[in-house]
């Protein structure tokens, strides 16, 4: 563990994760930073209080614990600065609020995280910002949608629930030519498998609720900016007074140490299950970017270093009126897969995807879409559990 971030970048990723953001000898050699809970911070003199000439001034502006996590995320992202917020959704929304003003136009990918779409259609609209949704496969053709007042392009790759890939470098080139900020929700890949800022993205967003925390018991988001856009992000965060809690930061930082080995297991198990699903007649399509059969596979292969543990598949159903009944029968038969939202933790989860809010991109055809989060259980046990689901769906 070291303060020298430049030398850390030459280390292997798991070594970097163990060391990032914290030097034990700052705290008498203790391996983990203590959770410093603070609101008020005292100043030794009136002069220092007047000039804020000390590292910590108030709890919302950071503590040793939250700073340790920010430093670790900065190192992993290659960022000029990172803020912590109470959830992944808050991470997206504060980024939008930082760079959009009344009268602006924003381009948001149509496969975006559902609550982000809701924010765009409600809060952003009330603030006088127009959000237009675009095809995730647009690539450089996104230029046709630009207007003189287009100020931000939001990307998410792979897309929520249906996992469409985006040509991030092509979109970045167009956006920057028009002077627009590019934001990216990179929760699926984490900076271990894709580094948005290395591809020209300005703002990298993570729901660290997911893989960094890794245990399904913490809510937190991070927003990381390049040098050009960090001052505006930092200013907005301070103005809004939104901050991450020290205890949550402590848990995320602790989870970060094992994220590399956990992601390897999530990736291997998810691919094994996805390949097994591909061989079944009762599966119409498997939506996993790392499969050669997936339409966006070549983009994933070109830009990404790995895949995480969440993907979807289309349960083959002949009649549309049977979609919900068969999907629910499938899910109700599962005993190892929990029925729940979120993902990135150790347990496997499943849900029936609802795509009623899509504006541009038609949903995959052939049946209901079921999303799987593959956890850390044994693959053979998970496959046996899915077999129960297929049998129950067939019986309906």
Overview of the molecule:
The chain is of the alpha/beta class. The protein folds into two domains: 5-256, 3-Layer(aba) Sandwich (Aspartate Aminotransferase, domain 2); 259-395, Alpha-Beta Complex (Aspartate Aminotransferase, domain 1), CATH 3.90.1150. Helices cover 37% and strands 15% of the residues. It is built from 14 helices and twelve strands. The protein has a seven-stranded mixed beta sheet with strand order 1-7-6-5-4-2-3, with helices on both faces. Helix 4 crosses helix 10 (246-256), helix 5 packs across helix 9 (230-240) and helix 13 packs across helix 14 (379-395). 47% of the residues are buried.
Write the layout of secondary structure elements.
Blueprint: H1 5-8, H2 13-19, H3 46-51, H4 64-77, E1 81-85, H5 88-99, E2 105-109, H6 114-126, E3 130-134, E4 150-156, H7 168-177, E5 181-185, H8 190-193, E6 203-206, E7 221-225, H9 230-240, H10 246-256, H11 259-278, E8 283-287, H12 297-303, E9 310-315, H13 323-332, E10 338-339, E11 349-352, E12 369-373, H14 379-395
Parallel strand pairs: 2-3, 2-4, 4-5, 5-6, 10-11
Antiparallel strand pairs: 1-7, 6-7, 8-9, 9-12, 11-12
Helix pairs in contact: 4-10, 5-6, 5-9, 13-14
